Amino acid sequence: MARRRQLYEGKAKILFEGPEPGTLVQYFKDDATAGNGAKKGVITGKGVLNNRISEYLMTRLSEIGIPTHFVRRLNMREQLIREVEIIPLEVVVRNVAAGSLSQRLGLQEGTRLPRSIIEYYFKNDALNDPMVSEEHITCFGWASTADLDDMVALTLRINDFLSGLLLGVGITLVDFKLEFGRLWENDEMRIILADEISPDNCRLWDSKTNEKMDKDRFRRDLGKVEEAYQEVAKRLGILPEAGMRDMKGPETMQ
Prior knowledge:
Blueprint: E1 6-9, E2 13-17, E3 23-28, E4 31-34, E5 39-42, H1 46-63, E6 70-73, E7 78-82, E8 85-86, E9 89-96, H2 99-105, E10 112-122, E11 131-132, H3 134-139, H4 145-167, E12 171-185, E13 188-194, E14 202-206, H5 216-219, H6 225-235
Antiparallel strand pairs: 1-2, 2-3, 3-7, 4-5, 6-7, 8-12, 9-10, 9-12, 10-11, 12-13, 12-14
């Protein structure tokens, strides 16, 4: 499609004005960052894979009634999305101890948590996205109590569904980050899922070996970063051995 006016560029994506009011075009880059931008690099083909993976997962979530900003994929690196008012929070779901949770609480990485934990982080790169509580969120007006109730309800459903879907193809959903936005339609507002769901913002481990299949391979200099993203796509049926082509869905691993 014809290039449109750029509205925003983040660490992994660029947003352009959409072809019609209320829409945006989301472009997926190969750029990779870690440590809130302290480490930078390029993961070849990451943007293409994340576009396809996020398209597939957003579509599956829509099928079970989760409202999302995703409309359709436009090409290898771009998708059409609904324009929303982004809530300045990262909602993090943790099923297994890893990353900052292990560091903060001295938990051995890989420890299965007694139950899933939801954490909130204020989206502010200059402040390194600090963890915040519901008290902070409602006090500073980032979201109302009703907004949070909707976000938590959606988050729990998303976690349940994605955990099962991924386990079916041999992947453990260790933890992941979600973002939400307010969609305004005819003076009515509803909370919907925004951003993306991909190995960039999910910790994904092989369910048998605990081999990391996500951006931690870049963060921790583990190597084979491109191969890990490709493996996730292959297991979801998005990137079969024959190459990139459309498929109906994943094949369950025995």
